Automatic annotation (TrEMBL):
The gene is hisG. Gene3D superfamilies: Periplasmic binding protein-like II (3.40.190.10). This is ATP phosphoribosyltransferase. Its EC number is 2.4.2.17. Heteromultimer composed of HisG and HisZ subunits. Belongs to the ATP phosphoribosyltransferase family. Short subfamily. It comes from the Bacteria.
Length: 210
């Protein structure tokens, strides 16, 4: 049986590939991919590279058995699949951030820009505040700088993007890390194979000190 994995391309991919390799999977194709998107170098695994939200689309439609994706995407999409392992990488956090002159107590209804409208809505509901949310696809940090929004809700890892754009953190929301998620049918059909793979990943985590 070939285990099919949808891996989030970009930062998650870079941090997960060493773990996959340490658990015995041939990732030479992923490392030298050019513009390829599908990798069959390892006879027991097929890896596809997709954007985070698409990992869940492939997983929910049973096109892959396993998805490797940030918990930010899982939380935003309210995903019904099984998160079976915290990969111990891709660690970052959600923050509310804005310019230095932002007043969190402002009387006017706040406008918040974000790639994560559901997480943002839940956060402001939890503190009893009604805000207007504007969905942005990327470079969210621009929004308060050019007057589109009063503040942003976004993930930050190193803090460099906030710092270089002179943005300040006003609240810490939830932490984020990369999760391994398994399709519900696959959990039932291929339990031994998936269990073995997860055990090897856990070994790799220990060996790499992740
Ligand atoms: C994410 C996030 C921030 C940045 C934070 O964006 O939305 O912009 O990373 O990282 P840092 O704290 O290490 O600077 P991403 O790079 O995924 O791209 P995007 O701007 O297209 O959303």
């Amino acid at each position: 049986m070939t285990i099919k994995i949808a891996l989030t391309k970009g930062r998650v991919e870079q941090q997960v590939v060493p773990l996959l390799e340490a658990s015995g999977i041939d990732c030479s194709g992923v490392r030298n991919k050019g513009r390829r998107l599908i990798f069959n170098e390892d006879p027991n695994f097929q890896i596809i590279l997709v954007k985070g939200p698409d990992v869940l689309t492939y997983l929910n439609n049973s096109s892959v058995h396993i998805g490797i994706v940030g918990s930010d995407i899982l939380a935003e999409q309210n995903n019904p699949q099984y998160a079976m392992l915290d990969m111990g990488v891709g660690k970052c956090r959600f923050v509310l951030a804005s310019t230095r002159d932002f007043n969190p107590q402002q009387v006017r209804r706040k406008i918040i820009a974000t790639k994560y409208p559901n997480i943002t809505k839940r956060y402001f509901q939890s503190i009893g505040e009604d805000v207007e949310i504007i969905k942005i696809e990327g470079s969210v940090e621009l929004a308060p700088l050019i007057g589109l929004a009063d503040a942003i809700v976004d993930i930050t890892e190193t803090g460099t993007t906030l710092k270089e754009n002179d943005l300040h953190v006003y609240a810490e929301l939830q932490p984020v890390s990369t999760k391994l998620v398994v399709n519900r049918l696959a959990v039932k059909q291929y339990r031994p194979e998936i269990k073995t793979f997860i055990n090897k990943l856990q070994e790799a985590q220990k060996n790499l000190g992740v």
